[in-house]
Write a structure and sequence with these properties.
The protein has helices at residues 2-11, 26-31, 41-54, 66-82, 87-111, 114-130, 141-147, 247-252, 260-264, 268-271, 287-301, and strands at residues 13-16, 21-24, 37-39, 56-57, 60-61, 155-159, 161-165, 172-176, 181-184, 190-192, 198-202, 205-209, 213-217, 237-240, 277-283, 303-313, 332-340, 361-364, 391-394, 403-407, 419-421. It is of the alpha/beta class. The strands form five sheets. Strands 1-2-18-16-17-15-14-19-20-13-10 form an eleven-stranded mixed sheet. Strand 11 and strand 12 form a beta hairpin. The structure holds S-adenosylmethionine.
Length: 422
């Protein structure tokens, strides 16, 4: 147990024993991408922390007055009782009932673990301590800049740390490469091929590029530039978090959304490696979206759906961010997993890779709006094809060491204000 805990402090991944559940601490997971910097815990969790203080998270109202809460519950129950579910709502409710006990077991294991609870308490203290230094937001600027007519003319300055012999010839030292390199900022595959953090300046702001990462900042119309010349150079692990149409993101104007039909033309097949790829797709709980994925999107992409993972969202005290049964605001999200181009998927044990265990539950405290926990590297073992696994994230808002990230704002969470020096 002690060994498990010390490895958790290092990796941010804690397997809850005897269950298909994993508690993860995203900041620790993300930190593995950096050498000289670390992700700021306060910046990562500021939204959850604020919600904790006001007693509500993700628009789920939790009454501070237990009596009031009781009355509200009665009202809710009455309302639910009197509402007759239509066919779509019935399917949604059935999906929920299928996973409810699995999620409850994972949650019970989480709050039953004194290690997880004491860790969460400490984490909250850490967030609180650093909140004074947290910056006011100026979100969405990369999306806006990418849409102006001058966008193709914008450049970015890259500064890498390189080895060079010092003047006395006494040995090698690591320095920032003087003037840096100017590159086209949009619709260009930009890579940090060094094994150290690099920095990029764009429109007077600084961004951090983790070791061995690539990114392309562009609109969907230019994603085709990422398709490899030959599928032997394709990706074996593809994580996708589409901007599904959703009332709350629209209301808050966090980022532009796309109608479902746009995703049918995503070149997922063309991005995949000859020997196949594991595809992980984040999907909202909307029945319309889930049915679209199962009936149209996965068939169009040529994906064999194998299982789902569930991301269960908790607060710093370990409680769920909202009632499990609340119809429109479930405290969990789904990650659908499937394979593309893999021959003989039914031959199980003979496969050259290990398919994921079914129905895993990932438990964590949420970060910023729509920010998903960094589960990509947990999937590496399940990717088919040659090693090291070639990984890409579509609609990304951050970079990860060893991965290619694409979207219209892949540098969003890379701005230096989200980091601290180690
Ligand atoms: N996975 C991300 C995270 O954890 O922070 C969240 C991704 S968010 C659900 C969807 C992303 O798709 C947003 O960054 C949005 O700006 C981007 N997006 C929307 N329309 C796009 C388009 N036409 N081309 C490229 N990216 C787009």
């Amino acid at each position: 147990m002690e060994e498990e805990l010390s490895s958790f402090m290092e990796s941010g991944v804690y397997r809850l024993s005897g269950l298909n559940a994993i508690f993860i601490e995203p900041v620790r997971v993300l930190n593995a991408s950096y050498t000289r910097f670390r992700v700021s815990t306060s910046m990562y969790y500021r939204r959850s922390f604020k919600s904790d203080q006001t007693g509500s998270v993700a628009r789920v109202r939790v009454s501070p007055d237990p009596k009031e809460g009781k009355n509200n519950n009665k009202k809710k129950k009455r309302k639910r009782g009197s509402h007759i579910l239509n066919e779509r709502e019935k399917s949604a409710e059935n999906r929920h009932l299928e996973v409810k006990s699995l999620l409850m077991r994972a949650h019970e294991a989480c709050i039953g673990s004194s290690e997880v609870l004491s860790f969460l308490r400490e984490l909250k203290g850490e967030v609180e301590k650093g909140l004074g230094a947290v910056y006011v937001d100026d979100e969405n600027s990369l999306i806006k800049v990418g849409n102006v007519w001058q966008a193709p003319l914008y450049e970015m300055l890259l500064r890498f740390r390189v080895d060079e012999t010092d003047e006395e010839g006494e040995g090698r030292r690591v320095v920032l490469n003087g003037e840096g390199a100017r590159v086209t900022a949009f619709n260009n595959l930009i890579c940090n091929e060094t094994s150290d953090d690099a920095e990029a300046e764009f429109l007077d702001r600084w961004y951090l590029l983790p070791k061995n990462c690539c990114f392309q900042m562009s609109d969907l119309a230019q994603i085709y530039n990422l398709i490899p010349d030959h599928s032997d150079l394709g990706f074996n692990l593809i994580v996708i978090d589409p901007p599904w149409e959703n009332g709350s993101a629209r209301q808050k104007a966090m980022y532009p959304q796309l109608p479902n039909r746009y995703f049918l033309s995503l070149p997922v097949k063309q991005l995949a490696h000859t020997e196949g790829a594991l595809v992980a797709l984040w999907v909202t709980n909307k029945e319309k979206v889930l049915a679209f994925v199962e009936k149209e999107l996965f068939p169009a992409w040529g994906i064999t759906h194998v299982t789902n993972f569930y991301w269960l969202k908790v607060k710093f005290d370990g409680s769920l961010i909202g009632e499990l049964d609340l119809f429109h605001h479930r405290p969990y999200e789904r990650l659908l997993l499937g394979y593309i181009n893999v021959k003989g998927m039914d031959s199980g044990p003979h496969l050259a890779f290990k398919p994921p265990q079914a129905n895993q539950v990932i438990v964590s405290v949420p970060g910023d709006y729509s920010r998903k926990p960094p589960v990509g590297n947990l999937l590496l073992d399940h990717a088919p094809g040659p090693k090291p696994v070639k990984c890409i994230e579509l609609f990304a808002r951050e970079l990860v060491a060893g991965w290619t990230s694409w979207g219209n704002e892949p540098l969003h969470f890379q701005e230096l204000r989200y980091f601290m020096h180690k």
